[in-house]
Amino acid sequence: MIDGKKVMLSGMQSTGIITLGNYLGALKNWVDLSDDDSIKCFYGIMDLHSITVRQDPAELRKNARTLLMLYIAAGLDPEKNCIFFQSHVPAHAELAWILNCYTYMGEMNRMTQFKDKSAKHADNINTGLFTYPVLMAADILLYQADYVPVGKDQMQHLEITRDIANRFNGIYGDVFTIPEGYVGQTGAKIMSLQDPTKKMSKSDENPNASISLLDDKDTIMRKFKKAVTDSDGFIAYSDDKPGIKNLIDIYCAVTGITVEEALNEFDGMGYGVLKEHVGEAVAGKLVPLQERFKELSQDKAYIDRIIKENAEQAAYYANKTLRKVKKKVGFII
Ligand code: ATP
Ligand code: LTN
Question: Does residue 186 register a pLDDT over 70?
Fold first, then answer.
C-alpha cells in the first residue's frame, strides 16, 4: 500500500519500437487501469532486462527514450503515474542479486522464455538471460506491487515471482506483498502477421510480421494486406484458422466489440476486405497516439524533467523495501 492505495507495477524492455501486440496486450490495459484513483501505478522502462540480448548502445538509448514517450503518448499521465528507467534505480540490481540467492536453478530451467530466447540467440546464452525472471521479481517486489498487468506470455514469470516472495516471507516474516498477475480479456496474445502460430514480437527480423506503433497508415495497410491467412476462403473464428482468428482478435481489441459482433459485421466478406477493415481500424486507433508522440519528441525539456522527477520518486519507494530486506538478511545498514 502507498498512501492507502493499492500498487500496480508493470514494464517493457526497451529492445525496439513496441508493436501492436505490446500495445493491445499490455500498454492499452495499463492506460485503462490508470484511471482508477485508488491505485498507485509504476511503469518501468526495463533497460536492464534489454541487455540480456546484445544491444547497440546508441539504439538502446534511443529506444528507451522512445518507449517512455510512447507510454505517455498512449495516455499514461506521467504526473500521476511514476514512469521511470529501471537503470536509474540501483535498488533493482541490488535486490535482484539478493533474490538470486533465494532462487533455484531448477526453477529457472523451467522458464519457457529462456528456452525460446536461448534458441534464438544461441551465440549469446548469458547468465543474465538465465536469471532474467529474478530481476523481474525484484522489479515487482521492490514496490510491494499488488497487481501486475502483463500479456499472457509473462504469467510464468509472475508465478515465479510469487514463489520467490513466499519463500523469502517464509524465512523472514512479511517482507513482500504477494503480487497478482492481471491479463486483459482482449489482446492477451496477438500473433505474428507472417506466422500466426508465433506471438507478434518487436524483435522479429521480418518487418512484415509486426505492426510498429509508429508505422504510418500506408505501411499498416500494406502489412495487413500481406498477412498470412489460409486457403479456405471463409471467415470463421477457430483455432484451425489462426491467421483469421488473429485478425479478428486484433479488430475486437482495437474497436472494443465482441467476437460475435465482429463475425456478424464480416459475414460474407472475403479475406481482402477483412484485412482492409482491420487495417483501417488499427491505423485509426494509432493516429492520435502518433500525433501526441510527435509533439512530445519536440519537447526535450519536459521529457528530461519527467525522467528526473520520476526516477527520484521510484528510488524513494524502492529503497524503503531494499533497506528492510538488507536488515532482514543480516547486512549492517
Ligand atoms: P522482445 O521481442 O524484445 O522479446 P516482446 O515484443 O516480446 O519483446 P516484451 O518487452 O517482452 O515484448 O513485452 C512487453 C509486454 O507486452 C509484456 O507485458 C508482454 O506480455 C506483452 N506482449 C508482448 N508481445 C505480445 C503479444 N504478441 N500479444 C500480447 N501481449 C504481448
Ligand atoms: N519481462 C517483461 C518486462 C518486465 C516486466 C517487469 C513486466 C520486466 N520487469 C516487471 C512486469 C513487471 C516483458 O514483458 N518481457
Answer: no
